[in-house]
Amino acid sequence: MRRLLGIEVMLLTTVVLWALNITVTRYILTHGFEPLAYATVRYGAAALIFLGIAIVAERSLRIRRSDVLLVVVAALCLWLNQLSFVYALEKTSASTIALILGATPIFAALIGLAFGLERLSRRFWVAAAVSFAGVGLVALGAPSGLSGDLRGDLLGISTAATWAAYSVAIAPLMERYSASRISAVVLSLGWVLIAIVGAPQTLEQDYALGWEVWLLLAFATLGPLVTTNVLWFRSLHRIGPSRATLVANLQPFVAAVFAVVLLDEQMTLVQVLGGVLIAAGILAARRRPPAPASE
Question: 248, 222, 233: which is closest to 181 by C-alpha?
């Protein structure tokens, strides 16, 4: 019983940290940090932390030659994911993006099907249709209307899709390497791409943003990026993916609640209904767990 309680605490902590990340990022981006400058600084710090952990613990970052392509694909997916994520949160509300991200497991299954990794039942297709209908309602129900948040909604969908692609790409690597080694290599490569694209914003950024913004940036790096990797993989190892995923699927809806409460955002009844449909589709599909959170 004590062991089970400890695992539940780790899972709930992971969900809360992931959920808070969306609200924290939205706050930072609306208080002076340019999107790509924020992503560059945050991922640069996280990559350094994981490089230190991997080198101290394993004294090697070696990846087999046969796995290099997968690593590159994972890094590209992570790069696209972060571009979508920061600009989505710049252009629309955190609660809207949180609900849209609930459809990530459906995207992961569709990507797996496209690459011959999945065989999907009729039940899944019904569940996918229900979830995507939910995404549509979340977008349509935005307080400013569909036209006001359309770019943000599309970027939110891109965030979910690219995170799903990252999850599919990284899954086989996790069977052969530790989470710290893969995180160190993939995050470092992803950061290089982010830094190249974000160089103009990073160089022009005014960094006199106040201690509150920097404290939240430290939280967004150490919590949702670093700590959750440790907690998530320990939970998977102890209770298995299916039970861990059931708790992890709460994250988008917890994130939406945080956004409404902490940022004083408005969420319409139509968006709530959309969130319910997304959740219903996910539960019906009974998907496997996502990769460790890197948003």
Answer: 233
Which structure tokens are listed for 248? Answer: 């992890």
Give ∠ CA 187-159-257 in degrees, rounded to 5: 105
- Give 198-217 pLDDT, tens digit per residue: 999 999 999 999 999 999 99
Whole-model pTM: value is 0.83
As a residue count, the chain comes to: 295
Answer for the pair 42, 225: CB distance below 8 angstroms, yes or no.
yes
> Environment class of residue 62 by beta-carbon count within 10 Å: exposed (0-12), middle (13-18) or buried (19+)?
exposed
Average pLDDT over all residues of the chain: 82
**Whose CA is closest to 45, among 291, 219, 213?**
219
Distance CA 99, CA 284 (A): 17
Q: What is the three-class DSSP state of 285?
A: helix
CB 135 within 8 A of CB 278: yes
CA nearest to 168, candidates 128, 120, 118: 118
